[in-house]
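Why do we bother with holo predictions? Because pocket geometry can differ from the apo form. Keep that in mind while you read this record for glyoxylic acid.
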Amino acid sequence: MKLGMNTNSVTKVTVAKTLLPAGMNVLEGEFEVTEGGPDCDREYLLEMVAGSAALIADPTVPVDGEVLDAAGSELKVVANYAVGYDNIDLGACASRGVIVTNTPDVLTDATAELAVGLTFAAARRIPEFEGELRAGRWTGWDPGGYRGIELTGCTIGVLGMGRIGRRYAEIMSGVAGRILFWSRSGLPAVEQELGARQVGLHDLLAESDVVSIHVAASPENEGMIGSGEIAAMKPGSILVNTARGSLVVASAVAEALASGQLGGAGLDVFENEPEVPRVLLDAPGAVLTPHIGSATFRARDEMARLAARNVREVLSGRDPVTPVG
Ligand code: GLV
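The structure, written out:
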């Protein structure tokens, strides 16, 4: 008998939507793996998940009671193919005895690096000015032209000091004059190690030249950066979001970019992806990327491997590698 197989039937693993070969290799030969593919919609998922022992779901796939019931009583693990798991109904999983896992650590550097990239791209308006050049509108070196915001010596505000927020702070500390952070938990060790100061949300917003969001999405955090919070920020400051779109009110960001209250914004995530609000597409100084925080060759391979290892461990009767909660 192969590992992970029961005596009379093959153990079924469903992937919604696709798993990179690095993950497939972990499962190959041990399980019957069915991929929904990029077009896998809800209806198809409800059909194909029936009888699965494991479901690998990416962050675009809501996993709720209906999906779990469609899978049936064989389901033992939902392996989220992401570190953020706001797409998973944890209560519905717990009440059915289904283990939930995610992919922390392996994408920390990649996501923090993108946040750093967006910070500089927004400060110097790199995509917009590149567009000017490509459109043939650049007429030569101009002392007053194409100016942006210099970050050396600035105050960086980190909202949420988990793994990614911390790595972002570490990288930015090479440039920043000081680093402030906000976290719901007290983190005196981080204050010491990073030389960063933990402050209240209002102080962070009022004092930072750049605010970068690294909190997990949850119902209590929904819209935590709206028009009131943006009005409390320093005029001309920069907002960066590589966490989740639901944390920020997009229309408030667009209005603040138009009025100059925000000097720039770097946004990698949106509330109803892949939809991007028209107001953001039209907003001056908005640098917009298609949810690519973890999209490095290394991180995406490692995420696939980790999601698959979580499945393999649970279906083999062992503890998951990276359980949620
Ligand atoms: C991606 O968005 C992730 O949460 O890993």
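Residues 108-288 form a domain with the Rossmann fold fold (CATH 3.40.50.720).
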